[in-house]
Amino acid sequence: FAFDEPNKHLYVLQVTATGHEAGDLCLNRLDYKGNRLGHMYLKGFGHGVQIGVEPSGGSAYLWTETDAVADGSGNAWGRRLARFKFVNGQTLTPSSSALTKYTLISGATSTTCAIDPSTNRLIMRCRVDGQARFVAYSLAAVKAGTATKLYDVAQPSGLGVFQGYTAY
Predict the structure, then answer these.
(1) Per-residue pLDDT tens for 65-115?
(2) Which residue among 16, 66, 138, 166 is buried most deeply as judged by most CB within 10 Å?
(3) Rounded-to-integer distance, Cα 41 and Cα 31, Å
């Protein structure tokens, strides 16, 4: 999940009941009382471990993994990042024109991201050569196509089952 503080919205992402191997996700927009305000379907995107939200006026752009590939254990994980505007009721696929896609690290798998609104940074978690990493970028540089790593840190071992993260 991710918070859109200016608009007082919470975005919640989950794998659909039949979407584990395909990477099909449901994205819900909630108010801070938990009332559902809208939804989108993201087919072929990934596992839904983490998303980023970028407020924009009264709406928001969401950042997710996309281009899911099944891992052989019954799950699918994204290989790239995607940015798209929240449009209630819309269904997106990896080939939708509404997406802007980003490949920040060639060969990375299991890509997810969070947005740090206090620094306007995008934090990407991914696997490179089997090792989980956290990599920080300027959000503006990512969107401009000029991203360079600000930080690159290996995920510590022994964290147990990894279920999400945030950045501040």
Answers:
(1) 999 999 999 999 999 999 999 999 999 999 999 999 999 999 999 999 999
(2) 66
(3) 19
Q: What type of residue sits at position 137? A: Y
Q: What SS3 state is found at 143?
A: helix
The first and second tokens of residue 128, run together, are 């490179």
Task: Give CA–CA dist 112/165, Å, rounded.
Answer: 10
Write out the H or E segment, with its range, that includes residue 139. helix 139-144
Q: Is 51 exposed, middle or buried (0-12, 13-18, 19+ CB in 10 A)?
A: buried
State which amino acid sits at residue 70: A
Whether the CA torsion 96, 99, 105, 109 is positive or negative: it is negative
Give the DSSP letter string of 33-64: T--EEEEEEETT----S--EEEEETTEEEEEE
